[in-house]
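Researcher: Structure for this, please.
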Amino acid sequence: MTYLMSYAIGADLAADPLAALPVAGYRNDAAGTHLTLSFRKRLDATQIDHVVETSTNLGSWQSGPGLIEAVGMPVDNGDGTETITVQVIANIAEHPVR
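Model: Predicted structure, token format:
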């Protein structure tokens, strides 16, 4: 993990910095099953933008309101970071290769 990534996600370098890495998963709703990503964001790192992107071929990457959406509200971790969960809007039945 780079120092920039450690800083951006508020990783604790003295304890277990890998525990702060983003986590991929799945979420089911009325529209189907969606890929999700949960990541920590350091609240005082206002100079850093966190951008989640998606791809169907690992060569061309896209992001934006038509592709990625937030799931619920950010969760305050009580340590100067919050956890944000986003999902790919298209369900995996529509686009199985993501």
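Researcher: Any notable elements?
Model: The mean pLDDT is 93. The beta strands are 23-29, 32-42, 68-70, 75-76, 81-88.
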